[in-house]
Amino acid sequence: MDKIEVFLSITNGDDYGYSSGSGYGSGDGSGDGSGYGVGYGDGYGYGDGLPNKIDNMQVYRIDDVPTIITHVVGNIAKGYIVGEDLSLEPCYIAKSGNYFAHGRTKQQALAEVGALVLILGVRKLLEKDVEK
Hints:
The protein is an alpha+beta fold. It has a domain at about 1-5 and about 45-130. Helix content is about 25%, strand content about 30%. The protein has helices at about 5-10, 105-130; strands at about 10, 15, 55, 55-60, 65-75, 75-80, 90-95, 100-105. A hairpin with a 5-residue loop joins strand 6 and strand 7 (about 90-95). About 15% of the residues are buried.
């Protein structure tokens, strides 16, 4: 795994998870038949309308924020937030456990992710208390 994949990976319980694999299969068959059918279809899709790459840089969706990561050191990444008009706003992304936060500076990103972890931790404690 490269540094970006490690940074973006989340944990399941106390262990990290990453997988890859390959497979091969073959088969044959035969048959005959006839039929008649009519059909009608309707569909919808969801997307933010942004490309998956900009200037050959991968666009990741981190907490639904389109983000390009250019550099990772430990639990801090540097990159850009991609605007709807494809503008690039420099940012830092901090990670704590399975939580991420963006900020204009490293300090702001770290403060935001710290606050997020604290809020979610308190919420979890309150939910456990209510269950009793």
